[in-house]
């Protein structure tokens, strides 16, 4: 069964959440996992694509927006999901992606503003009502 971790960020701005997604994707991919980042829309996909190249001054995180590229350790998209081979889903969207059950783990990143927290509670309730194992982590700046 998919394990779900909620990361509750103190920061209220979207950029902080995206940068945390980059750091988390880097950490998880370095552990040998394939990662998919689900974004809310095409503009967010483009922004994540850019950030994954530039969030570190001395390195970049290999990734792609083609979810069917077998050589991409990290994929980013707002609609499509990898058919297989990914075991960690990082969710940046306000909804639970329909395909979340394909993954061993889901990392749901919740921003610090009131709207983001309310949507995060809705997603938490969704998983809890269905009996998924849940954990949460408070992330300070």
Automatic annotation (TrEMBL):
Which GO terms fall under molecular function for this chain's record?
A: DNA binding; DNA-directed DNA polymerase activity
GO BP term (any one): DNA replication
| Top enzyme class | transferase
Keyword flag Thylakoid: no
Arranged from A to Z, the UniProt key words for this protein are: Nucleotidyltransferase, Transferase
Top-rank taxon: Bacteria
Keyword 4Fe-4S (UniProt): no
Which Gene3D superfamilies does this chain map to?
A: DNA polymerase III subunit chi
EC id:
2.7.7.7
Pfam families, per database record = DNA_pol3_chi
Q: What is this protein called?
A: DNA polymerase III chi subunit
């Amino acid at each position: 069964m998919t394990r779900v971790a909620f990361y509750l960020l103190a920061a209220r701005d979207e950029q902080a959440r995206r940068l945390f997604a980059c750091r988390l994707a880097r950490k998880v991919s370095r552990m040998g996992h394939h990662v998919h980042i689900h974004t809310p829309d095409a503009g967010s996909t483009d922004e994540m694509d850019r950030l994954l190249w530039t969030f570190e001054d001395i390195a970049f995180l290999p990734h792609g927006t083609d979810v069917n590229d077998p050589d991409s350790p990290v994929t980013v998209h707002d609609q499509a999901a990898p058919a297989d081979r990914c075991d960690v889903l990082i969710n940046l969207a306000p909804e639970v992606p329909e395909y979340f059950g394909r993954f061993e783990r889901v990392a749901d990143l919740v921003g610090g503003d009131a709207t983001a927290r309310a949507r995060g509670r809705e997603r938490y309730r969704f998983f809890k009502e269905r009996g998924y194992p849940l954990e949460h982590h408070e992330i300070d700046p």
